[in-house]
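In response to a reviewer's request, we include the raw inputs and outputs for one of the modeled complexes. The two entities were modeled together in a single run.
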Amino acid sequence: MAIIVIVFLGYNFFIYTQKPPIEVQKMSEIAIRGEKIYQDNNCTACHQFYGLGGYLGPDLTNVISEEGKGAMYVKAFLNSGIKSMPQFNFSEEEKEALVAFLEAVDETGHYPIYEATHNYGWVSIKYKK
Amino acid sequence: MNQKIPFLFLLLGLSALHLGAFFGILITLQYIYPEFLKEALAFNRLREFHVSTLIGWLILTATGGIYYYISKVLNVPLYSKKIMSIQFSILLVCSFAIYYSFLVGKMGGREYLTYHPIISLPILIAWILFAINYFKTLVGKIQNWPVYLWMWGTGIVFMIYHFSESHLWLIPSIRENFIRDITVQWKSYGSFVGSWNMLIYGTAIFLMSKIKNENTVGRGKVAFFFYFLGLSNLMFGWAHHTYFIPTQPWIRIVAYAMSMSEWIIFLSIIISWKKSLNKEAKIKGNFAYKFLLATDFWVFVNLFIALLISIPYINLFTHGTHITVAHSMGTTIGINTTILLASAMFIAYKENAGIIEANTKIIKLGYWLFNGALAGFLTMLMLGGVARSKWTFLSDKTTSFGEMQSSIQPLIVAFLFFGVVLFIGLLFVAIPLIKVYFNKLKK
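The model returned the following structure tokens for the whole complex.
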């Protein structure tokens, strides 16, 4: 029992301090403000990052870098009240912050994973450079 | 009054079950009619009524059961009835606070913990009180703890830990790094679900030992082997939720290895089934036992699904689709809910067998409606997941998300139908239970 607890503690320490295998910038202040807006409005009820979140809307991990999408595209959606998406009334500043947050997320990786190699059920994923 | 607290936990839990299922019906309606309640309570708030209320069902009912079993079945006097009452009162007030936070839209915006984070503080205090009461009551009072006492204790301690862990995002060094943040977030969720599973599976083993009247159940090397296997999965198995987040590969490899160890559990179920088949006839007609048989079946189905989707190459296609929902609904409804209903039945039968016996027919009907509807319900989710995965990986980029969503509408309508039947089935089962508990409160 003691052994398993010690292993657990060490393991937790690594997780809490792990550096992702890619260099990403710390989230900027404005991106963090964007994340707060994302949370305050519980966008996660419908949207996902890395496939984690709700199912009513599309995954947003790469909505900034995806072909044909991007900052303008995102802004157009925010106050649109399209389909089941609530009619938000974000100010220009709030929209900027949300975009900054989505940009920061986009930099961290790819999702869905279209390019992956696999063997024995294991999948190696492609990291962003 | 203090004698009645376990029944209050159970009643509040059962109410949460029905209310939560009802919210589930409402949010499914929002899937079908995007305008439904959109002005008053859009999906981003209504969904959380559903999620939080049903987590309430699991936790309140498990807690009420544990208090009841300790004091009324194991006959160990509680360290403090007052602590139990305070714990109940805190959770009751928090339930209202959580609803209030959704109503006014003060959201926390994290999966599961979507209410305003400040409410987490009293909830944490309630868990710490539970821990104090539990260990002060039992340590030294019972020799050689059977495995279910270990499981309950472990569940409480780890709940406190992982519940706190899920708030680490409030610390800047975690929050500034998105990958670290999302990893810690889903680590904590995987593990606090594992913690409530400890409470609930412990209850299942407890019930088995009492129904079969065999004290050997829950003792011995094998029982403890599975306890440790479950514990290590609780600690390290969470990362199959995060295979595709660009974390360090070793984290994901550990998770893969850990998840696969559960095949041992899977095989052991098949073996023990074969052994127990001939014994069953004796216990016929006992509803608590009947629900545990349903549990057995759903464990088998869900574990099989879980094991498959824990293989990264399969997870690649199922992650983020409704197949994940099928997994979480399958386990919370098929496994957790059947165990807790067994527990609620066991207690009701012990308190007032007359009412349960007088309602045999309706409970039986409810039982079959519940299980039958659940099968349909999960099938629709699996099919929906396949459709979404096909859209992600096989479609050319011309089909929009909205078109894909419309194409699975018929599945969602069928899903709603099964959901409504499930709700009715639950009502049939619960009405006699509620009668018994209310009688206890009046006295």
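As requested, we also summarize the result in words. The first helix of chain B runs from residue 5 to 32. Chain B has three domains: 1-141, 148-256, 278-443.
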